[in-house]
């Protein structure tokens, strides 16, 4: 039966996505960039919306939430998956509200105003059936996908405003967003880039090679030299894995050191992060925050004698508090870290913070 | 309803349920006043209401009562805008008022649920004076089987800290009472600081029992997170730039304001903590950064 086939196909797609997530997490860094993960997650959610069996918005949200929980459990450190699930949930809520004809889109958030003026039950359990809901939701998800495709370009377009001629820019590790940002500025301006290599995976080397191809003067330095070189730097531009709800960052290890050195020299720290990296998590949740990989990059297994006597760790991420950050550049423009709460309230519904 | 009756009703509310927030009791009394009010016009109603609020503020000069009163006044204005006819308006007001009251009595529970995840196992917490919201948060964390110890400041002149310590002991939470002057000494041992608030001001700062500002400055110096837990009805439309800007009617008790000539000889009961020292605010509207507070107030009052 074609219906059953579609369902098997759908669950196969989900399973293969989950196993890919689990696998790529154990490698060094991410084998695929966050943008691709976001795109694949959204495409998968669109497929679920199109093919799964649901009668009203409430059921669809339950299905998506369930799949979302499985996906985030497969790879907790890959927060873009959870973020996309929450975006889609918000889309469903909005489309439902629009179908009902109520202009309550802005009333989604809890606020003092809402407390005072709401009369009667505001309990909305999304049980009404609308014929066009499916088509509307799928169209909205398509818009989301278009937005995702344009994020890197939108960010790079802002490069000329921030990078001036003869500046010395410092960055760390390899971020595709920052790479595109710098390459776009290099078309019209001449500047120097210093890349911290970001041991032990040394992604900084690949970044430097790639920048050199565009004729940008690049220097690679070891992480220990960050503070020493900082006095000569005009700006620090970095990418990040996640932007947290308080405006802090979860970025590649070594970023906190870079941020502290920049603060000490009063050098502006600019973070290039597309909106899909914004996550409603706070930095206290210990179990999902840190990720450690095999320490053989730090202390190779060949050093057998020492191994039994010491503990070697290889953390992947660092937390950077919001006070050290000057500006966030995202596909919707530049924002201060204290404004992140506002962007979050526009992207996600508070009830979806916990999937 | 006479003003004396109103005050008596307010006092009765607090007597019956000592755990109720004073703002909730104030709003309840004002709702009762509204029900018994005899005015013929909305303007008359507003005038009576304003007088009633002033009378309540004279009884209990805390910031919370003032913010609760202003919120209620705003509630009346918003409702009267939608229904210009008085009798219909009054019915709608009473219905919404009951609903509002029900919602805000649940606020403390919501804050408790939100905050207790920030308390890790083995944490050492420092708190100031006696706050029912902080107690609820710690109660929730203890119910979650988390192990933590609490340090409470004595909080003179009324030794409210001792009261807090007794309540915590009843919950089987290990607690130590420290001198107010020992905050700097104890700060290196603690992991986080949680305090309540009597009022949250527009800038995102808080007004709380005297000694809170000191604690905030110390925690900033030691890089410890400073969390404030408060319900949303404590948001007040003040914007103090320093300690002097906080109005005298909040700083001193109502009877002292009336009887004493030279306020310089009196000790203030509250102080103002600026938003730069606060890490996060936990409210029933969610976890907010101090910059988000003014947004909430604008949404309400604009």
From TrEMBL, chain A:
Name the InterPro entries for this protein: eIF2B_beta_subunit (IPR051855), IF-2B-related (IPR000649), IF_2B-like_C (IPR042529), NagB/RpiA_transferase-like (IPR037171)
Keywords from UniProt, A to Z, are: Cytoplasm, Initiation factor, Protein biosynthesis
A cellular component term, taken from the record's GO annotations: cytosol
* Gene3D superfamilies noted in UniProt: Translation initiation factor eif-2b, domain 2
Transmembrane feature ranges: none
GO BP term, example: central nervous system development
Does the keyword field hold Protein biosynthesis? yes
* Role played: Acts as a component of the translation initiation factor 2B (eIF2B) complex, which catalyzes the exchange of GDP for GTP on eukaryotic initiation factor 2 (eIF2) gamma subunit. Its guanine nucleotide exchange factor activity is repressed when bound to eIF2 complex phosphorylated on the alpha subunit, thereby limiting the amount of methionyl-initiator methionine tRNA available to the ribosome and consequently global translation is repressed.
Family recorded in the similarity comment: Belongs to the eIF-2B alpha/beta/delta subunits family.
Q: What is the protein name stated in its UniProt record?
A: Translation initiation factor eIF2B subunit beta
Origin organism is Cirrhinus molitorella (mud carp)
From TrEMBL, chain B:
Q: Which UniProt keywords apply?
A: Cytoplasm, Initiation factor, Protein biosynthesis
> Which cellular component terms (GO) are annotated to the entry?
cytosol; eukaryotic translation initiation factor 2B complex
Q: Does the keyword Transmembrane apply?
A: no
Q: Which organism is it from?
A: Cirrhinus molitorella
Q: Does the keyword Cytoplasm apply?
A: yes
Q: What is this protein called in UniProt?
A: Translation initiation factor eIF2B subunit alpha
Family recorded in the similarity comment: Belongs to the eIF-2B alpha/beta/delta subunits family.
- Where's it found, cell-wise? Cytoplasm, Cytosol
GO MF assignments: guanyl-nucleotide exchange factor activity; translation initiation factor activity
Q: Which InterPro entries match?
A: eIF2B_alpha/beta/delta, elF-2B_alpha_N, IF-2B-related, IF_2B-like_C, NagB/RpiA_transferase-like
Query: How does this protein assemble?
Result: Component of the translation initiation factor 2B (eIF2B) complex which is a heterodecamer of two sets of five different subunits: alpha, beta, gamma, delta and epsilon. Subunits alpha, beta and delta comprise a regulatory subcomplex and subunits epsilon and gamma comprise a catalytic subcomplex. Within the complex, the hexameric regulatory complex resides at the center, with the two heterodimeric catalytic subcomplexes bound on opposite sides.
Describe the function of this protein.
Answer: Acts as a component of the translation initiation factor 2B (eIF2B) complex, which catalyzes the exchange of GDP for GTP on eukaryotic initiation factor 2 (eIF2) gamma subunit. Its guanine nucleotide exchange factor activity is repressed when bound to eIF2 complex phosphorylated on the alpha subunit, thereby limiting the amount of methionyl-initiator methionine tRNA available to the ribosome and consequently global translation is repressed.
